[in-house]
Amino acid sequence: xxxxxESLFTNDYSVNRGIMFIYNFYTDQLEIxxxxxxxxxxxxxxxxxxxxxxxxxxxxxxxxxxxxxxTVHDLYDIGRSIVxxxxxxxxxxxxxxxxxxxxxxxxxxxxxxxxxxxxNESYEACESYQNIRTKFIKKFNWPVYHFLILSVRGFxxxxxxxxxxxFNAFMNKIVNKEEIAAIQCYRP
Length: 188
What we know:
Blueprint: E1 11-16, E2 19-24, E3 29-34, E4 37-42, H1 51-58, H2 60-66, H3 72-85, H4 100-118, H5 123-139, H6 142-154, H7 167-173, H8 177-184
Antiparallel strand pairs: 1-2, 2-3, 3-4
């Protein structure tokens, strides 16, 4: 598993249309990777009210250089993926209750995320993580996913101090759910 005590979800990953997106929570930057090309975008200025305009200015030129044949639908889908990955949307009703089932399913995400770090952020590992994450989000929703990510980051769940199977106990004994719910709505 991971060799450092770095929080598991410092970086979060998404794969869309053969392009890998890496969001760094602490630097608030998005890295776009396609084959051997890498672009880094500072997400300062991306807000829920200017998403479309911001993506057209900062992301569309990169995506058009990757594939000039991308349709408007492709660009919209990729933009939506970026917004969700970076949590640039308002959560009207924050999550306050996490079930054991949610934690058990999230453990699969932790395993897949740890596998990305073991594989040095390989495209295949990110794609596998994306598939597991998509299943989790379809079953629960984005706010639950982000609540658990914030719990991991905010209360420093890492694989040196905890095993994956300890996630449920971690959520019940260590995480202050009210504190996470208070900061869960939209990160400026």
